[in-house]
């Protein structure tokens, strides 16, 4: 495979990922009123688990679970915490606001890695956090009153926290 065809294939896959990922937020917002936020999470994860289970069997991969306590903790944070908060927020909140708040995950990873793993953030990390925090404050516009946006945005930030904690622990 030549370098240019590899670059085109990689770029195509990256673009497809962006569209599928962005579209999934809209799809979640459309589906949640009909099935409910928690039922949607269950259906989504059971479907994914079934596909992975069949794939593992077909490829003869071992089904042993590594470090079960940590796996359960990370799974609860990523599944119940992250998805539970996101789906609940989507019931009343706008897709864009909820998604942006969920993507506060890097803030939490830096802070939690510092507290839990003793990985001290660099000056560049702090500068990035400060710049991103300014952007989030401008986006949230708390000076205009959050009104009905408060709960969905808080749940979005909570989902980012769960995602970040799951990342640090894994």
From TrEMBL:
Query: What highest taxon heads this organism's lineage?
Result: Bacteria
> Is Membrane found in the keyword set?
yes
Q: Where is the EamA domain?
A: 9-138
Keywords associated with the record: Membrane, Transmembrane, Transmembrane helix
Tell me the compartments it is located in.
Membrane
Is-annotated flag, keyword Transmembrane helix? yes
Q: Which residues form a coiled coil?
A: none
Family under the similarity heading: Belongs to the EamA transporter family.
State the name under which the record lists this protein. EamA domain-containing protein
Organism encoding this protein: Bordetella holmesii 1058
